[in-house]
Design a protein that fits this description.
Elements (H helix, E strand, L loop, with lengths): L2 H22 L2 H19 L2 H9 L5 H33 L2 H6 L7 H27 L9 H27 L4 H7 L2 H4 L18 H5 L3 H13 L6 H25 L4
Helix pairs in contact: 1-6, 2-4, 2-6, 3-4, 4-6, 4-7, 4-8, 4-11, 6-7, 7-11, 7-12, 11-12
Amino acid sequence: MSTLVLAVRDSSTMLRRNLLHARRYPSMTLNLLLSPVMLLLLFVYIFGDVMSAGIGGGGADRSAYVAYLVPGILLLTIGGTTIGSAVSVTMDMTEGIIARFRTMAIHRGSVLIGHVVGSVLQCMMSVLLVGAVAVAIGFRSTEATALEWLLAIGLLTLVSLALTWIAVGMGLSSPNPEAAGNNALPLMILPLLSSAFVPVDAMPGWFQPIAEYQPFSPAIETLRGLLLGTGIGHNGWLAVAWCLALAVLGYFWSTSLFARDPK
């Protein structure tokens, strides 16, 4: 068989392996899903009226704040889900299974490909579940066209891919699963410091550059524009550029770490 056929076959096997692990040990995925769902409910039902009045400059309108909040929560969900990928990779590296894979006649890159594709699928499933909760509490996207929905799904997939490669690199560079979880925490903290909950121009002046010049804010603004029919401006190109840069960085970082001989 050709190298490409072997790579696809072995990557498919590794993908099934990772999906089986996720199905047999769902506690981590559920724990990571709990945070965005709790934040969504907290900000809608506890702070929703106040936040709506503050952002809109008028009366409280919780439904308006739900529409503003959900795109950021979806990106937060992706960031949280990829933490599980970092932990899973570290577990493989420290429990000896990778050493055994190295002795077998399998495509070397299939192990990482299986982790990445499996993580992207889990991210999209997590987004679907959190999105269902958002719809249940009142989120509507009536202004989005079919093309905008496709672009929104494409953006979410691209963000998942980029963050997954970064998470894989964090997992490979971590000595144990606990360290991997801690090292990957910025993937969930950065969305909290973005425009997910309030507009950047409503933040203190000293904090605005932190929220503006990071990958999550343009991705959130782009997703918000696609789902709500508002303007996107330059955020679309910035979001794609950030995703491609992070994906390339994460890919080369991960493959270089994985290619090193074990100590």
